[in-house]
Amino acid sequence: MTPNQAEIVKKSFPKILAGTLSATHILYDKLFELSPDTRDLFKKTSMERQSQMLIAAIGKLVKSIDNWDTVKPDLEALAKRHAGYGLSPEHFVYFGHAFIHMLKSMYGNEWNTDLEESWKAVYQKISEVMIGTLFENK
Ligand code: HEM
What we know:
One of its GO terms (molecular function) is oxygen carrier activity. By secondary structure, the chain is mainly α.
């Protein structure tokens, strides 16, 4: 992730925050389409609450994106809380596709390569830490 990509992601977050609480169903619909087994993981979940928690978590990460050392412990703690959910590393790949798909749908014609590459770079970083915490050293 380049400093410019971090800046693009930071700048685009307010728009995403404004729209995603109503758009997260796009993320989860896509996730369930790409990886149908994930539907069961959320069977007992209030999707509205889940969406709020997801966006709050992403917002917190984005805010400190230039200072990754402060983000990492939070991210590791978040990953550890995912330990009991029965996830596989592939789930993070599908989740990433679904996340980008949601952003694309929200932005419509304003979506561009810079936004896509920047958000992908950020998601890559987030998922690397989460996958590392969850699945390595086991
Ligand atoms: C960028 C990556 C991700 C972020 C930021 C994220 C964030 C969150 C947050 C904030 C929660 C609320 C509970 C807590 O804070 O511990 C949560 C719960 C959960 N997440 Fe994630 N998550 C990510 C990736 C995934 C992936 C890849 C899956 C599986 C496909 C997943 C499945 C779940 C499930 C099953 C719950 C529990 C829902 C419940 O309470 O019933 N998460 N996630």
